[in-house]
Amino acid sequence: MESAAIQISNLNFHYTENSGVVFKDFNLNIAEGERFGLLGPNGAGKTTLMNLMTGVLQANGGNIKLLGKEISEEKKVKKLFGFVPQHHSFYQELSPAENLEFFGAWAGLNRKEIKERTKELLAVLGLSNVADKPVSKFSGGMKNRVNLAIGVIHRPQILFLDEPTTGVDVQTRHAIVDYLKELNKAGTTLIYTSHHLTEAESLCTKVALIDEGKIIAQNDLQTLLQEHKQDGLEGLFLNLTGRSYRDS
Amino acid sequence: MYKLYTAVLKELRIMLRDKAALAVMFLMPVLLVVVITSIQNSSLKMINDNTVPMLVCNRDGGESSLQFIDALKKIGMFDLQKADSSLTDKQLTDSMHAKDALIAVVVPQGFSSALKSKSQNITGKALTEFGMSVKTEQDTVIRKTPPVAMFYNPVLQESFRLSVNGALKSAQQFTENRAVLQALYLSMSNKKLPDSLEQQILNNKSVITQIPTAKDGSRKIPNATQHNVPAWTIFAMFFIVVSLSTNVVKEKISGSSIRLKTLPTSFILNLAAKQITYIVVTLAQVLVIFSIGIFLFPYISLPKLVLPENLGSLFLVSIVCGWCAVSYGILIGVYAKSIEQAIGFGAVSVVILAAIGGIVVPSFAMPESLHLLMKISPLHWCMEAYNTLFLENGYVKNVLVSLFPILLIILIMQLVAVAGLKKQRLI
């Protein structure tokens, strides 16, 4: 039996007492080594689920385990995963090298490890020639690559990616997807959300479609397409979630 | 320790690359302290060192009126300028404006004769009391001395106007006493009072020595520099809330705070790094502004800043005041939802707290109704602590009275900030 990277059981969550329930008795298992896509329309609960899995939000009930460790064991669990948020969550005034120095130290690396990883990551992500320039002067695609480098500096076993290619050109998107596949080959489990369904088709080995806080379909991509008699993920998506607006 | 080091380094790098924030933190307070000390120094000089121009219109011309004007001159407070006795009140006030005189005095017609009548009457009464029968004019009709009129420019402050009034009364009293003395001597000896005797009787040679006292018993005279340099240093320290609160808000808006929450290090360490960095900045502000007071002021004709002898206490007060300012910046940053909110509220609130805290106007000069409000301003307690050192040369035990309220304010601000971070799920 495959060991689980993530085990979510009977998860309950609401933002405030008066707000609606986001998740009720929600269950999800993700195996180690997967490239797992969490897909769904706006407001489905994808980002909330990612925030719960990374400990940014605390559940009102239920259980979340990462590689067998309870999410509440913060110090142990936080070393296991990396997080690449949707927005450029770093310091624009600093250079990529300076950002990596700070976030690397906070992820628990020492000075030597940071130096080595910074050199390696900047080279792999094509940022070596701008390593010491302030990020504020970078293009959107370059900023996305800095965002990704920070998320993986400590070689996490699980990597959460919240729409990592939003607003970037085709070249950058391909470069990021290729790098993520390399990471996965090296053993990193990827948990990924995106609205970019062709990208998800190319990257993910398994997908779960979430709508209104519930999983409406989950399997490897080919099985899902066959089950629902669809040629691609976009057709499957519209077939299962409908065509009406979700964020109006 | 390495994590704290990288966090402090990060804060320093961000701050040093923001040229506008550096100007607000260092250039603005230096300009403020130079400009305001210069203005206040010249005002104090005008009041303390210079005589005030005064027009004198003598419509009487008699002996007593001349003696009154002479007595007024001897007070030393006024630069007397003679106005034509034929001027009307309107012409006199026009002349005041033309000659930049803030005050004009009119000695009315009949001043000398009325004073003579009054003095002879008093002399007669006095001699009768002594049982001496000397013929005087006491039975004659006594004319009331017509009042001396004082015209003044409305810009003259109440306190200064009252001082001028007191000086005029003193001169008038002197003139009256002299007239009574002369009349009394003449009645008793049928001779004119000799000048030497008159001088001995009337000239009051006793002096009042005025000494400013300090807590350590020293007698340094406070000046505009000793007041303004610490005051505007405190203002500068608190004005860093604009830069610091913006920094905190930017971290929240960019999502860096959320990212930090996913890392195996407490977010509190990030706040500690910010506080350490910005406390160092406030100490640098103290160093820069005090150095301006010590080294630059003498070159621009301003009194040199004299540091208190107890430099340890000065460092303690500076670090506590800096920490208070930094705590306020963090508090605003935690609760502000946008950079605009942080800048707007931060800047305006510091100006208000400075105004009610005795930075702009000294606390003793503020209305009674504001005294309670003044005590809630952390800048007031910082000012009190610095005043104890700079104006009273106090020791650590003397500044503790002011440091305890500051520490209490810091504790409250830190707790409220942590509560805000918890509510925002950042810790």
Structure description:
The complex is a heterodimer of chains A (248) and B (427). Chain A is of the alpha/beta class. Chain A has helices at 46-53, 74-77, 96-106, 111-124, 140-152, 170-185, 197-203, 221-227, 233-241; strands spanning 4-14, 21-31, 35-39, 61-66, 69-70, 81-84, 158-162, 189-193, 206-211, 214-220. Chain A has one domain (4-241): P-loop containing nucleotide triphosphate hydrolases (Rossmann fold, 3-Layer(aba) Sandwich), CATH 3.40.50.300. Helix content of chain A is 36%, strand content 25%. In chain A, the strands form two sheets. Chain A has a six-stranded mixed beta sheet with strand order 6-7-8-3-9-10, with helices on both faces. In chain A, strands 2-1-4-5 form a four-stranded antiparallel beta sheet. The radius of gyration of chain A is 18 Å and the shape is globular. The mean pLDDT of chain A is 85. Chain B is mainly α and 427 residues long. Chain B has two domains: 2-43 and 219-423, no CATH class; 50-202, abc type-2 transporter like fold (3-Layer(aba) Sandwich). In chain B, 66% of the residues lie in helices and 5% in strands. A four-stranded mixed beta sheet of chain B has the order 2-1-3-4, sandwiched between helices. In chain B, helix 3 crosses helix 6, helix 8 runs parallel beside helix 12 (311-335) and helix 11 crosses helix 12. The mean pLDDT of chain B is 84. Chain A binds chain B through residues 51, 54-58, 74-75, 78-79, 81, 83, 85-94, 98, 101-103, 105-108, 110-111, 134, 150, and chain B through 2-3, 5-7, 9-10, 13-14, 17-18, 254-256, 258-265, 425.
